[in-house]
Write a structure and sequence with these properties.
By secondary structure, the chain is mainly α. 56% of the residues lie in helices and 2% in strands. Among the domains are: 115 residues, no CATH class; 127 residues, no CATH class; 150 residues, no CATH class; 44 residues. Helix 3 packs antiparallel against helix 9, helix 5 runs antiparallel to helix 9 and helix 16 runs parallel beside helix 19. It comes from Dorcoceras hygrometricum.
């Protein structure tokens, strides 16, 4: 799993879209028409408000929001009946005489009239819920214990969320949907294969076990023509539904397979706080976002409260409300809160420079094999070349702003802890402030060093990269010879393109040859490299060099040497994409939904460094050089069918698709088991079914 290639540039694009859609970053780009996912943010926010209102028992607020934003849904008496019934229970739960009178009024004016035509059994349900008048809410043996259960709040809030998401087209960003899908497949794959997941600690926290109830199709939709069995089975197996569940889902979506699929994914729930942490960690690591600078003079002071200077919610990960009976909070805890923030944000403005996209195709302008104009770095800092502002598509890093929906609560509880801590002594706070600021500065330096090297490598500036890494750690390339080989390949090919064959051969004899002599797996890539000498100057192009891939491999390796671990999101993507590949190999079919979720882009492998002839050897050698192999999206090869490579179809194994579906349907078997049975009986579905029932 650790060596599976992932297109990190495609993931960057997905995460930028996610962060913009969820308004997690302050975007400096000029205003334009909002993307569909971004324009649906207010609907998603409204749905979350309704969910929170219902889960807290405030049914009236939820109904008011529906009346204001989605009044059509209140015309569905099935939903309205459930809401009014829950309102009746919540009024009784309060226990006062006034609320009991309000409950009786609710029955007379709302619940009883709605029960007449909500659904066939609604009136029986109405009479049943009246028993709540005489049975106590704490009586677990009463016939209405289920009605009193607070679980009902979550059931109806989840149902409304499912309906509203589809009704308002308020789907989560593609990244969220893709992550749900990949993690669910990963969990299922590990369970069925009996293997332990290397990321179980992350996936268990990230993807919640419970799902929202499915949206119920209206009876009028029963007249929809029969659905294609291929669609039914594809949906059922993609999101773990029964066949009838898949049919109902398609019926609710009026036969639209992709919408039904998104509806089912939307029922799965991610822990938003964990997701935001993972995304921020990755974006900081990749240089996509920046944090608010924190300096000793303006951000942290011992004599005043620090909360106003910190971002809202910045301490919420480790802070907890301290009661009067538990005053054990100390300065170490506050430092831990700040350290958590440091770990998530990392980069400050100590050596901040404007960042702009690399362009691997424009090596005439960007590549350099000379050291002219390059400043010598000192022992701890990498000094980047001067850059003019505004170059490239991303001239500045974006600022992470986080979610502000529960801002007041987070600020309040953090203020409480900091005030308690402050009362324990200002002297210790002064010492802790110094420690925190020093840690911030050191971590900022490390991130800037790594990002600077990554950016130089992405522009093909090999000599500068090698020089700066050697200044940082003279033993680095001794332990990572493959990375040096790949860098020197870039330098060699650039010189060949420029017609300087003498210098190119000097690079080959001084570096490529000795490295290949020590590692025989590099001999074939070396031969392919030397073959470029035979090409005409115009043909010796290096436009397909995967400089971004090489730059990311360097980033990971150099970062680890400096004590910066790769983001946890990288681990999740590698493991889940590996499981996705293996699962569909077992199913012997292609994933119909990976194009919709950009999964095919995350897997897309561009041309190798030296062309198709050396693809295998180059890929193999990459896996030996570092624990991360990345492929650039700058020159991707799109598969003709839009799906991942190495997947096979039913025609490849000599089975008819209809026969496979028939066996799956009649015997309720997974696809792989159905195929194995058909292979045994020459692909005859009727024979398989007869033998099973014989």
């Amino acid at each position: 799993m650790d060596t599976i290639p992932v297109n990190w540039e495609a993931l960057d694009a997905l995460l930028i879209d996610f962060a913009k859609s969820e308004q997690l970053i302050e975007d400096s780009s000029p205003p334009s028409s909002p993307a569909p996912s971004s324009s649906s943010y207010r609907w998603r926010f409204m749905i979350r408000q309704i969910r929170l209102s219902l889960e807290s028992g405030d049914v009236d607020s939820a109904i008011d929001l529906l009346q204001s934003h989605a009044p059509d849904l209140l015309n569905d008496h099935r939903l309205l009946f459930r809401l009014q019934k829950q309102k009746f229970i919540e009024l009784l739960r309060r226990g006062t005489d006034e609320d009991r009178d309000s409950a009786i009024k609710c029955i007379r004016t709302s619940l009883a009239p709605c029960a007449l035509d909500a659904y066939p059994e609604a009136y029986e349900d109405f009479k049943h819920v009246l028993l709540a008048f005489i049975y106590d809410k704490d009586d677990q043996t009463s016939p209405v214990a289920d009605e009193w259960s607070k679980k009902r709040r979550f059931d109806i809030s989840g149902l409304l969320s499912s309906v509203l998401t589809s009704h308002l087209n308020a789907y989560d960003p593609i990244f969220s949907l893709a992550l749900k899908y990949l993690i669910s497949i990963h969990k299922g794959f590990c369970l069925r294969q009996g293997i332990s997941s290397p990321i179980s600690d992350l996936t268990e926290r990230l993807l919640l076990e419970e799902r929202d109830p499915p949206a119920i199709p209206q009876e009028s939709l029963n007249e929809v023509p029969p659905f294609d069995e291929v669609d039914i089975q594809a949906l059922a197996h993609a999101v773990e539904l029964t066949r009838q569940g898949a049919v109902d889902s398609l019926r609710f979506a009026k036969g639209d397979l992709q919408q039904a699929f998104k509806n089912e994914l939307s029922r799965m729930r991610l822990d938003v706080s964990v997701l935001d942490e993972l995304v921020q960690e990755y974006c900081v690591y990749r240089g996509i976002v920046d944090s608010v600078p924190m300096t000793a003079g303006t951000q942290i002071s011992s004599g005043t409260s620090t909360v106003d200077q910190l971002e809202p919610g910045c301490l919420s990960q480790n802070c907890s409300v301290v009661s009067g009976s538990d005053m054990s909070l100390n300065n170490t805890h506050v430092e831990g809160c700040l350290e958590t923030r440091i770990d998530m944000v990392g980069m400050q403005n100590a050596y901040m420079e404007e960042r702009y996209c690399s362009n691997s195709n424009n090596l005439n302008k960007d590549c350099s094999t000379s050291t002219s104009g390059t400043r010598q770095p000192d022992e701890h800092k990498v000094v980047l070349r001067n850059r003019s502002p505004g170059n490239g598509e991303r001239s500045k890093r974006r600022r992470w702003r986080g979610r502000n929906e529960n801002q007041e609560f987070n600020i309040g509880r953090c203020k409480h802890e900091l005030n308690v801590t402050k009362s324990l002594g200002d002297t210790n706070m002064d010492l802790n402030t110094s420690v925190v600021v020093d840690t911030l500065s050191k971590r900022a330096d490390k991130y800037e060093i790594v990002l600077g090297i990554k950016e130089l490598a992405s522009k093909g500036m090999v000599v500068e990269v090698v020089e700066q890494i050697n200044n940082l750690d003279p033993e680095f390339f001794t332990e990572h010879p493959l990375l040096l080989f790949q860098l020197k390949q870039v330098e060699f090919l650039k010189l060949v393109r420029d017609g300087d064959h003498h210098s190119a051969l000097k690079v080959a004899s001084s570096h490529l040859g000795p490295l290949a002599a020590k590692d025989l797996s590099l001999l074939k890539p070396l031969k392919e490299t030397l073959l470029t000498l035979l090409k005409l100057k115009e043909e010796a192009t290096v436009e397909n060099l995967h400089l971004d891939a090489l730059a990311t491999s360097l980033q990971v390796a150099v970062g680890r040497r400096l004590g910066i671990e790769e983001p946890q999101l990288m681990k999740i993507l590698r493991a889940t994409l590996h499981s996705h590949n293996e699962w569909f190999k077992l199913q012997m079919c292609k994933d119909q939904f990976e194009g919709l979720l950009w999964i095919h882009s995350l897997k897309e492998l561009g041309s190798p460094l030296l062309g198709d002839a050396s693809c295998k050897s180059y890929s193999n050698s990459c896996t030996q050089g570092s624990s991360q192999v990345t492929i650039s999206s700058g020159s991707t090869r799109t598969h003709e069918d839009g799906n991942s490579p190495n997947q096979i179809s039913s025609t490849d194994i000599g089975c008819d698709e209809n026969a496979i579906l028939k066996v799956m349907e009649f015997l309720a078997l997974p696809r792989a088991d159905a195929i194995h049975l058909l292979v045994q009986y020459n692909g005859n579905a009727e024979t398989v079914i007869q033998q099973i029932f014989a």
